[in-house]
C-alpha cells in the first residue's frame, strides 16, 4: 500500500536568544545576541501507510508537537524531507492543508464568539464542501459525537469536553483522508474519551482515515493504535507494534497471593528458594506479590510450592501494564529489541 | 470568493454581538468633531476662507474625516501581533486560505459594520448639531466611496506590515502605537495637508498617508476640483498596488522564520 506520510532525516532546530543582564548587557544585545541552539527533532525517519492509526508518544518536550507542526506545514524543517499525501507540506501549503485535518488539544480552532454552527458554515465555505456531501457526512459526525444540542451555542460557553468534540467535528468537515491529533483527549473525562475513541475507530473503518495521534494517556493508544512511534529527546527510540513493545518489556509476571493466615517474608523466601523470586508485601499483611520471570515452569513451580504449604483465599497473575512499561522505557531512555 | 464573503459576514456577526461597545464610540467621535469645530471657529475668526477652505467646508472636512476613519480604521495589526504571540497562527496556517487576504476581509467586515452602525448614525447626529454641508452631487458621493475604498486598502496594507513585523520583533506594541500616531498626523485627519508648510507637503506627497484621509475628505468637501480629483484617485490606486510588494515580501520572509509559540 502507498505511503501517506514519508519522512526522511527530519530535523528541527530552534534558536533561542538569551538576554544579557543589566543596562550594559542590553546595549550589547543590540549588536550581538547570545543564542543557544536547541534540537527539538533530531534526524527522524518513518513512513505511515494508508489507514494506519499510529500513536506518537514520548515524554514532555520530546519533540512530538514540533514534528506534527512540520508534518502539517506550519513550521519549516531545518533539514530533511517530508512528503505527506504526495506533497511537500510547507511548499504547497494551501493545496496540502485541504487534504488533512488537524486538532490541537490545547488550542481552539473554532471562532470564540460565534455559534458552533456558524464556525462549521464558515469552514464548509473555506474547504469548498458541496452541500450534499456536507449534509450526509456531518449529520453522521454530529450524531456520533452527540453535539447536536451544542451547535447554537457560542464556543466560549462550552465546557472543555463539549468544545473538544466540536473541534473534532470541525477538523472533519472536509472529510480528510489524514488526521493529525495533538493531545485530543487532554483533560477529558472517561466518558468523553470513550466517545472520542469510538468515533475515531469508526471513521478509520468507514473512510480508511489515516490517524497520527499524540497523547500522554496510554489507554488511548491501547484502544486505538496497533503501532507506536516513540520519541525521546527528538530521536525515535522505538517504532513498531505496540504488542511487540509489550512482549519485549513485560518479561516478568507478578503473582499475587491472598493468604487466609499470616505469612512472613522469610517463610515465603524459604518456600520458593529454588526459583528466582522477588517477594513484596501487598496492600495488607495477608497479601504478598511474587515477581517472577515469565516462564511457565517457574510460575507453576512457585504457585505449587506456596499453595502446598499455605492456605490461600485468592490468587491473581498480573501482567505489567503498558503504563509501567512505558515508564520503564522513559526511565532507561532506550528500547531493548527482542 | 465564497469563503471571503462568508468571512466578512462572520466578522460582521461578531461585531454585532458587541454592538453596545459602539454607542459610546459615536459619542466620543461627536465630541471630537465638536471640539475641532470650536477650535476652527476661533481660528477662522471673521475670515472667509483659509487655504481655500471655508469654515463650513472645514467643519465638513473634520466630520467626514472622522466618520471615514470609522470605516478604514481596523485593529488587524494588533490581531496579527496577538495571534503570533499566542501561537494562534498555527491554526491559521492549517487553513487552506491566504492568511493576509483573510485578515483583510476581516478588516472589511469590521469596516462595513462600523460604516453602517457608526458612521451613518454618527453623521446624522453631527449634521443636526453643526453646520455641515453634504454634497447633493451624486458623482461626488460616488467618487468619495471609491476613494474611501482605496483608503481602506492603503491603511489595511500598512496595518498588515505593522502586524507582520511581530514575526521579527516579537514585541512590537511600540511600533504599532507609533504607526497610529503617524497615520493620524500625516494622513490629514487632524489637519488638512494644505495647512502644512510647503516643504512638509512636498515630503508627504511622496508618502502613502495622504491617501488614507486627506484625499477622500477633500473629495467629499469638494475641495478638490476637476482633474485634481482624478490625480488624487490615481495616487491612491498607485499606492494600493505599490504596497502589495513590501507586504508580500515581508510575509514570505516571515513565513520562513515562523516559530509557533507553545506546545
Ligand atoms: N518556539 C520554540 N523555541 C525554542 N524552543 C522550542 C520552541 N518550541 C519548542 N521548543 C523546544 O523543543 C522541544 C520539543 O518541544 P515539543 O513542543 O515538540 O514537545 P512535545 O513532545 O510536544 O512535548 P509535550 O508532551 O510537553 O507537549 C522542547 O524542548 C521545547 O523546549
Ligand atoms: Mg506537545
From TrEMBL, chain A:
<dbReference type="InterPro" id="IPR050763">
    <property type="entry name" value="ABC_transporter_ATP-binding"/>
</dbReference>
<keyword id="KW-0067">ATP-binding</keyword>
<dbReference type="GO" id="GO:0005524">
    <property type="term" value="F:ATP binding"/>
</dbReference>
<dbReference type="InterPro" id="IPR027417">
    <property type="entry name" value="P-loop_NTPase"/>
</dbReference>
<dbReference type="InterPro" id="IPR003593">
    <property type="entry name" value="AAA+_ATPase"/>
</dbReference>
<keyword id="KW-0547">Nucleotide-binding</keyword>
<keyword id="KW-0813">Transport</keyword>
<protein>
    <submittedName>
        <fullName>ATP-binding cassette domain-containing protein</fullName>
    </submittedName>
</protein>
<feature type="domain" description="ABC transporter">
    <location>
        <begin position="25"/>
        <end position="258"/>
    </location>
</feature>
<dbReference type="InterPro" id="IPR003439">
    <property type="entry name" value="ABC_transporter-like_ATP-bd"/>
</dbReference>
<dbReference type="Pfam" id="PF00005">
    <property type="entry name" value="ABC_tran"/>
</dbReference>
UniProtKB/TrEMBL annotation, chain B:
<feature type="transmembrane region" description="Helical">
    <location>
        <begin position="52"/>
        <end position="72"/>
    </location>
</feature>
<feature type="transmembrane region" description="Helical">
    <location>
        <begin position="144"/>
        <end position="169"/>
    </location>
</feature>
<feature type="transmembrane region" description="Helical">
    <location>
        <begin position="21"/>
        <end position="40"/>
    </location>
</feature>
<keyword id="KW-0812">Transmembrane</keyword>
<keyword id="KW-1133">Transmembrane helix</keyword>
<dbReference type="InterPro" id="IPR010390">
    <property type="entry name" value="ABC-2_transporter-like"/>
</dbReference>
<protein>
    <submittedName>
        <fullName>ABC-2 family transporter protein</fullName>
    </submittedName>
</protein>
<feature type="transmembrane region" description="Helical">
    <location>
        <begin position="237"/>
        <end position="254"/>
    </location>
</feature>
<dbReference type="Pfam" id="PF06182">
    <property type="entry name" value="ABC2_membrane_6"/>
</dbReference>
<feature type="transmembrane region" description="Helical">
    <location>
        <begin position="112"/>
        <end position="132"/>
    </location>
</feature>
<keyword id="KW-0472">Membrane</keyword>
<feature type="transmembrane region" description="Helical">
    <location>
        <begin position="181"/>
        <end position="199"/>
    </location>
</feature>
Amino acid at each position: 500500500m502507498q505511503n501517506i506520510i514519508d519522512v526522511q532525516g527530519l530535523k528541527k532546530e530552534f534558536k533561542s536568544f538569551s538576554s544579557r543582564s543589566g543596562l550594559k548587557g542590553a546595549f550589547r544585545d543590540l549588536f550581538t545576541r547570545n543564542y543557544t541552539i536547541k534540537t527539538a527533532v533530531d534526524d527522524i525517519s518513518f513512513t505511515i501507510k494508508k489507514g494506519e492509526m499510529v500513536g506518537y508518544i514520548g515524554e514532555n518536550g520530546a519533540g512530538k508537537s514540533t514534528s506534527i507542526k512540520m508534518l502539517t506545514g506550519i513550521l519549516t524543517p531545518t533539514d530533511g524531507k517530508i512528503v505527506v499525501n504526495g506533497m511537500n507540506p510547507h511548499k504547497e501549503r494551501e493545496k496540502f492543508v485541504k487534504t488533512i485535518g488537524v486538532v490541537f488539544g490545547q488550542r481552539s480552532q473554532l471562532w470564540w464568539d460565534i455559534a458552533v454552527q456558524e464556525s462549521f458554515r464558515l469552514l464548509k465555505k473555506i474547504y469548498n464542501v458541496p452541500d450534499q456531501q456536507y449534509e450526509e457526512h456531518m449529520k453522521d459526525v454530529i450524531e456520533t459525537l452527540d453535539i447536536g444540542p451544542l451547535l447554537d451555542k457560542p464556543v466560549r460557553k462550552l465546557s472543555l469536553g463539549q468544545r473538544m468534540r466540536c473541534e473534532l467535528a470541525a477538523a472533519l468537515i472536509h472529510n480528510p483522508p489524514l488526521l493529525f491529533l495533538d493531545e485530543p483527549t487532554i483533560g477529558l473525562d472517561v466518558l468523553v474519551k470513550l466517545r472520542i475513541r469510538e468515533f475515531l475507530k469508526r471513521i478509520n473503518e468507514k473512510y480508511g482515515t489515516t490517524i497520527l495521534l499524540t497523547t500522554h494517556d496510554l489507554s488511548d493508544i491501547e484502544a486505538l493504535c496497533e503501532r507506536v512511534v516513540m520519541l525521546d529527546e527528538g530521536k525515535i527510540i522505538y517504532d513498531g507494534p505496540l504488542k511487540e513493545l509489550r512482549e519485549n518489556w513485560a518479561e516478568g509476571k507478578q503473582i499475587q497471593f491472598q493468604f487466609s493466615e499470616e505469612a512472613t517474608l522469610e517463610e515465603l523466601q524459604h518456600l520458593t528458594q529454588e526459583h528466582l523470586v522477588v517477594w513484596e508485601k501487598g496492600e495488607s499483611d495477608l497479601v504478598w506479590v511474587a515477581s517472577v520471570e515469565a516462564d511457565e515452569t517457574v510460575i507453576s513451580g512457585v504457585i505449587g510450592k506456596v499453595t502446598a504449604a499455605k492456605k490461600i483465599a485468592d490468587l491473581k497473575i498480573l501482567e505489567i501494564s503498558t503504563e509501567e512499561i512505558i515508564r520503564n522505557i522513559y526511565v532507561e531512555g532506550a528500547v531493548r529489541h527482542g | 470568493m465564497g469563503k471571503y464573503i462568508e468571512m466578512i459576514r462572520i466578522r460582521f456577526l461578531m461585531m454585532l454581538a458587541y454592538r453596545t461597545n459602539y454607542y459610546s464610540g459615536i459619542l466620543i467621535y461627536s465630541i471630537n468633531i465638536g471640539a475641532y469645530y470650536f477650535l476652527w471657529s476661533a481660528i477662522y475668526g471673521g475670515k472667509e476662507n483659509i487655504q481655500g477652505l471655508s469654515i463650513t467646508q472645514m467643519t465638513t472636512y473634520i466630520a467626514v474625516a472622522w466618520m471615514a476613519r470609522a470605516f478604514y480604521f481596523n485593529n488587524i495589526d494588533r490581531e496579527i501581533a496577538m495571534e503570533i504571540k499566542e501561537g494562534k497562527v498555527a491554526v491559521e496556517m492549517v487553513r487552506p486560505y491566504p492568511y493576509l487576504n483573510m485578515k483583510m476581509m476581516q478588516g472589511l467586515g469590521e469596516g462595513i459594520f462600523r460604516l453602517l452602525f457608526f458612521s451613518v448614525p454618527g453623521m446624522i447626529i453631527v449634521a443636526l448639531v453643526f453646520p455641515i454641508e453634504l454634497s447633493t452631487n451624486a458623482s461626488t458621493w460616488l467618487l468619495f466611496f471609491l476613494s474611501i475604498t482605496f483608503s481602506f486598502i492603503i491603511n489595511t496594507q500598512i496595518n498588515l506590515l505593522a502586524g507582520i513585523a511581530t514575526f521579527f520583533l516579537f514585541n512590537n506594541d511600540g511600533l504599532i502605537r507609533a504607526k497610529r500616531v503617524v497615520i493620524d498626523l500625516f494622513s490629514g485627519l487632524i489637519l488638512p495637508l494644505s495647512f502644512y508648510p510647503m516643504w512638509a507637503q512636498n515630503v508627504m506627497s511622496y508618502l502613502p498617508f495622504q491617501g488614507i484621509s486627506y484625499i477622500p475628505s477633500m473629495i467629499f468637501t469638494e475641495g478638490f476640483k476637476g482633474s485634481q480629483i482624478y490625480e488624487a484617485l490615481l495616487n491612491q490606486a498607485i499606492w494600493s498596488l505599490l504596497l502589495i510588494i513590501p507586504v508580500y515580501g515581508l510575509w514570505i520572509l516571515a513565513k520562513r522564520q515562523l516559530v509557533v509559540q507553545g506546545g
